[in-house]
Amino acid sequence: MTHPTVILKTNLGDIRIELFSDKAPVSTENFLTYVDGGFYDGLIFHRVKPGFMVQTGGHEVDMQEREVTAGEIVNESDNGIRNERGTVAMARMNRPHSARSQFFVNLVDNAMLDYGAQPGGWGYAVFGRVIEGMEVVDAIANSSTGTVEMHQDVPVTPVIINSVRRADEVPAAPPPPQSGD
User: Fold this and answer.
1) Whether pLDDT at 19 is above 90
2) What is the domain partition of the chain in residue ranges?
3) What angle is formed at CA 26 by the lines to CA 28 and CA 163, rounded to 5 degrees?
4) 10 Å Cβ neighbour count for 178?
5) 5-169 has which CATH code?
6) What average pLDDT does the segment 122-135 reach?
7) Under 8 Å CB-to-CB from 45, ≥6 apart: which residues?
């Protein structure tokens, strides 16, 4: 089975993400609905915690929250996929079934976020993994951060998502020039 992929274009470079539509169908469908609607375009990575994760999917450059267009989704953290380096998981509130648009990339293996590791059993649902561009994720993680109003760990220089598109909708790069051209 092939998994859908998306390309997340940032001002620091591109990140290609494979989505686990077979193991996390609700999270994948939710994410792709936001992708297809252009929701993530212009948002920033608003929470950067080196040695832990980088988070996006909710705030604009001025740290205002973008209004989400869909309701909360069921937590699929019991899908058997662990929060390991390079995996992409749904962010949520303290309530287990409260994820909406925000997501994060794990910078390290974060077993404490897995199903069964949290009180009550619920963890954070992994629904994809970075297959290209982990060096871009690491560059985001190395951003200098500060506090903006009540938000901590905000990059001082915004890391902006220019666009997120399904990989089959991203124009292919032109071929390299041939010698003699």
Assistant:
1) yes
2) 5-169
3) 30
4) 6
5) 2.40.100.10
6) 97
7) 10, 54, 55, 56, 140, 143, 155, 159, 161
